[in-house]
Amino acid sequence: MEITDLISRLTVTSDVNVRQALQAIEAGSLGIVLIADPKDGRFAGLLTDGDIRRTLLSGVGLESPLTAIDRRKATTVRHDTTREEIVKLFSDTIRVIPVLDVAERVVDLAIYDRRAHLPVAQPVLGERELVYVTECILSGWISSTGRFVGEFEKRCAEYCRVPHAISTSNGTTALHLALLVLGVGPGDEVIVPTLTFIASANSVVYTGAKPVFVDSEASSWNMDPAAVERAVTPRTKAIMAVHLYGHPANMRALREICNRHRLHLIEDAAEAFGSTYHGEPVGSLSDIATFSFFGNKIITTGEGGMVLTANPKLAEHCRILRDHGMSPSRRYWHTMLGYNYRMTNLQAAVGVAQIEKIDMIIEAKRRIAEDYVAALADIPGLSRPHEPAGTRSVYWLNSFCVDPAVVGVDRDFVMAELKKHGIETRPVFPVLHQQPVYAAGPHSPMPVAERISAHGISLPSDPTLTTAEINRVAAHIRQAFQTQTLVRTS
Predict the structure, then answer these.
(1) What does pTM read for this prediction?
(2) 149-186: per-residue pLDDT in tens?
(3) What residue ranges define each of the domains in the chain, with the CATH number in brackets?
(4) Which of 28, 88, 124, 364 is the most buried (most CB within 10 A)?
């Protein structure tokens, strides 16, 4: 986009209303709006989306004139200001500096490179989230009652093609509820992959049951059905399939095991909202499924979770347990021991706006995955989980395994080198059977998961990443490989 076009999109005159200013912020994608004098076009100020958000929270409406918002003195520079002088003006709060000509009109923008730091993940938030949250605040419905809670549940159920969706305070409470309504409790065992986030196992322990860990498939990094089969005992009550990093697990094989042994099948789909398995959405492939909407997930509500099921009895049980065990027909009458696991209307408002853009987010995630494959294709010793035939991953995180036997490079060295260049990474999850809380065992050998955990790295996967930024990550990985190889051979 030409800079003149960008400036035009970002600019409004001082006689417009707050809604029009928000529309300009959305169009420009820089989090600011430039304000011009309606008479002669001279620069009259700058507002950030944060300035407008704080004003809306104070009670100013979307149709209010822009003059209702106090404008701080904006930092500007002249067109002949040197680059070095401009760089010194940037700070944590100053990211865009208007460049003015002699007539005090904006002719250019000095933009701080927000990608000096590439995060592993961050939410994609915009005007709709702000509008819906503002509606909650102006209406007064900010707790667990309000129109957005039901709306978000309805949209998630429709998207996943499941009749019932029950929102929760986070993904872990969703898992806890799912296990409880299946009757999992003391004396039971639930088979869980060892390569996953610890909430999968912790939720089992919360019920008094025991998590039994199994190894992963080398190809998909998900739980190995053959290992699951070997782990079944008379105490086994359920299998918890985790769609790791957005990749669907082998649900047909796991369903067959469950049917043969009369076990419940649970999906921990925290990282996989929008993935499909043979044309069916994850979340619809089991007796009961859960999602997480933490800030780094495919869609977010800040914190939040969801339980999905086709079974109306399980759904009703979940709703009662979620709300202190209160009878649905008699207020403050508690028929069972329950929990306060409710989602707030504020969280759900963000969720509704997020699910409206789910197709865009998934398209971006898949494009980023393709870009990584292309950018890293010439680097030996890097492997990633495969997308099996019939599945469609959302690639929550783009994760690779660094094989030191092939390239002589240590995963942690690569991470440290990338950090020097402002590129955030994270190690693949530590295996659960080696975590202090679960290490007592006994555990069977799990060499595949241990290898992936020891050598796996997750790269920046923010949906707004550009191809150029991915190529930058790849270039620094290539440089890190060369650096450590030279060090070891010198």
Answers:
(1) 0.78
(2) 999 999 999 999 999 999 999 999 999 999 999 999 99
(3) 3-112 (3.10.580.10), 127-356 (3.40.640.10), 358-489 (3.90.1150.10)
(4) 28
